[in-house]
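user: At home tonight, take the chain set out below, taking as long as you need, and be ready to discuss the fold:
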Amino acid sequence: MDRSRALRLRTLALAVFGIVAMLAAPTAAQMDLSQAAGVPLPAADLPAGTVSVRLVRETVANNIAGEVVTFFVDDSEHARVTTDATGRAQIEGLPAGARVRARATVGDEVLETQEATVGTTGIRFMLAAGLKGAGSATSGRPAVPGSVFIGANSRIVLDYSNELLNVYYVIQVVNPSADPVDIGGPLVIDLPTEARSATMMEGATPQATVAGARVTVRGPFAPGQTPVNVAFTLPFHGDTAELEQRWPVPAQPFPIFALKTGAMDLVSSQLVEKQETVQQGQPLVVASTPAFDAGGVLRVDVSGLPHRPTWPRNVAFALAALICAAGLWAAFGPGARAARA
């Protein structure tokens, strides 16, 4: 994958998590730190080039002050900043395109964010100490036979840019039991057959790989959620793209977002609670999928896509066909045969 595509995937990964955070609007009491910790979020209230890290212990109500956060820019140590009374450490003035991540050590825990790319807004991170102990009771346990499902924290984001429809799956595979489970083999998610340039996004479990249009997630699956984040482009003709996705395991209802461009819309009899909204200046179409049994298929048309008119191409093809036919007639028709005779 070339550098420009990698940068775009990082930027859109930020948008994916940021949109979900804005629309869900979780309160401090509701936030699942195991999912939010280390994930970059766009922050329109911070100047571009500003990166803020908040350090907490176990819950967002327990700020950690007086700890050092180390910031790395383009894989080199950039600055060490001590958290203030609100648990925050911040750096400013980073150039667009710079890659940034942060690390903090709290007791014997080393906490590190995902890598993000500086764009047109600031970036926020949260690092949470004291979460590893919650899952220590299951560490080292052997896997038992069990099942998984696709959870309600999953989402699909669609974005049209550079004449391409980019599709982002942020799938949470949920093991509801207290033990690691073996589902009898890997979990295989076959993307739409038209999917092109599929790649795993940042934040995906290392158990997941993609080859062509097939995502394979190796087991066993730990208790809780296993993130499977994949991006691909979906070809289309005219002004409509057809998204058809079969789920290999049951799926709970989850949101689907379209970053609206022009008349872009989501059309499907399966979608519920569809609405248009604007978040941080970005128009969105938001809807919810139904629940699916294993083998269920989600079918959504993405309509109103900008496209070039096809009639010039069709006229050119027709003229080329006429020219070829005339040439063949001249070469092999009755007149040509009479001339040869």
